[in-house]
Design goal:
The protein is an alpha/beta fold and 278 residues long. The chain is built from ten helices and seven strands. The relative contact order is 0.17.
């Protein structure tokens, strides 16, 4: 897929994120928006997945370890055709299958329930190990938050993955430098993130998480790397795509009001129009 088409998908994903969070009147827009480009590449270019093969044991797997950015995953799955986009408006509503954190038992396309920070990557490591034991070719992708990697369980999983040489595993760290209480380097700094993963025998790639050329090159290198898992440290902007949300920790976990929603959607619509003219 050409970069401009991926940009369109990312913009569509951002619109879905805002729609869901606004309708729910709660949720996590900041980290969802920062990861939208990564989601677009994963689901529309990188991974061997589709609604028709959602239960195929040979499909690739994705685990959203930072489960609170479920709005991004749901919007992506809707854009991919796993369920109607209209259902994004039911986010966090009673009886909806789109709850505040991913639920593999009720949401089409979700490979692992997550929400307790640090646990998702462990599940992804287990999936990757199972693939090796079963001599399967599927790949496993896990997305962590940079605040999430303050959790010790993340590094236990990393140590195991490196030791077991799980080259079918890719860990993506959405490094937007903000968590609920502020800048991660002021709350409890995990830096240097790349050196830590290198210490656990990972192939580490640092990229701009909004640049599709860099994203594409990183995942290509990950596939070519043998004998060790890969960690892609993606530098991103929290709230990317919405001017008043960008680099603002306050948008980690709150919904826009009606006026803010209209402003945000108008900004994204303008981006969409510009992309259609390219």
């Amino acid at each position: 897929m050409e970069n401009v088409e991926l940009e369109k998908k990312a913009n569509e994903i951002r619109e879905g994120i805002l729609t869901g969070v606004h309708c729910a009147k709660c949720g996590h827009p900041g980290g969802s928006l920062s990861a939208a480009d990564l989601f677009a590449y994963l689901y529309f270019e990188e991974m061997n997945v589709s609604p028709e093969t959602a239960k195929d044991p040979k499909r690739d797997r994705f685990v959203l370890s930072k489960g609170h950015v479920a709005p991004a995953l749901y919007s992506t799955l809707a854009a991919k055709g796993y369920f109607p986009k209209k259902d994004l408006e039911t986010l966090r509503k009673v009886g909806s299958y789109l709850q505040g954190h991913p639920d593999m038992k009720h949401t089409p396309g979700v490979d692992m329930s997550s929400g307790s920070l640090g646990q998702g990557i462990s599940a992804a490591v287990g999936m990757a190990l199972a693939g090796k034991i079963d001599n399967e070719d599927y790949r496993v992708y896990a997305m962590c938050g940079d605040g999430e990697i303050q959790e010790g369980q993340v590094w236990e999983a990393a140590m195991f993955a490196g030791f077991k040489k799980l080259d079918n595993l890719v860990v993506v760290v959405d490094n937007n430098n903000l968590q609920i209480d502020g800048a991660i380097d002021e709350v409890c700094s995990p830096y240097p993130i790349d050196k830590k993963f290198e210490a656990f025998n990972f192939n580490v790639i640092n990229i701009d998480g909004h640049n599709f050329d860099e994203i594409r090159a990183a995942f290509k290198k990950a596939k070519e790397t043998k004998g060790m898992p890969t960690a892609i440290i993606a530098k991103t902007i929290k709230g990317k795509g919405v001017s008043f949300m960008e680099n603002a920790a306050e948008w980690h976990g709150k919904a826009p009001n009606d006026e803010q929603f209209e402003q945000a959607m108008e900004e994204l619509r303008k981006v969409g129009e510009e992309l259609c003219q390219r």
